[in-house]
User: Fold this.
Amino acid sequence: MARMTRLSVVLGRVNCPNRGNIAVDICLFCDHLTAVDLDRPSPVIFCRPPRPPGGQRQRRTATLPVRRPSAGGPVRSPVVPPELKQAILDESLRHPRWGAQRIANALRDRGVLVSVRKVLQVFTQERLNHAWQRLERLEWQVVCGAVTPNEEQVRALEAHDPCFRERQLCGSRPGERVLVFSAGPVGAAARSMARVPMRVPVHVHFAIDTFSGYAFGLVQAGEASVGRELLWRAGVAPFLAEHGFTLQHVHLLDEETQSGFAIRLLQAVLPKWLSRVPGGDEVTVAGLQRRLDAVLSAYNRNPVTGFPNMGQPPICRLTGGGVD
Assistant:
């Protein structure tokens, strides 16, 4: 019997002993495949490749045989019946952190005849090979109202997307609930700003509309509390009024509050903004504000993953239209 071989998956490809460097999708339909684990940090597959004739290992320099398509056309993978495919999809979203082996075992326990290879085939067709892909599919269905999540699904989604944990606090329309916070609570922005040669303390404040994810920013020198109020009074409220909305509730987050909306925004914006800050004495508050406005403009006009945008740009969700 051929010996078990463990093959690493690197950038979606595998060094097969018989076929050379091939796409991992090909391995999923190989008769010698025994197990697959694509959800771990270093994905691997296990197989029992047949030994070459004579019992001798092939040398790496040998020419490997190439499987050519039959005369009737290319070899196609077996079609998965629609009922079986739907059962696999339902089970994978019911337990999005489970791999193909556990899903196949759970279906067999309920009397559904399915192999691990069939589960992997459906995963490949639906682009659900990784747990994060299954979680994003589940989150989309929950947001659309197609699925009512159970406790296990809610825990998995809250761990995957911090904003989903605050879904009950999200506004139902633009301006209903706006968060205002400084850059200090969730990161090293304050320490990063220490390299900016300013003679007075510089504070960076942000506001985000929880319905659309639209973000605002203000670089301010002086008292921090003054800057936060100035941001929502002179920046957020006029912008919403210009688009036909009224600012209803403003929530000021203190330094101890960890908000998923704030974490996601700062992780996306701060590194890009700080990388544009030049060194030397030519740095001014106006220059910092100009660069921050450019970064926020790009953020608001590009797709944002996770709740509540689900891949929609903040400006499109706010206005209900496209990107200008």
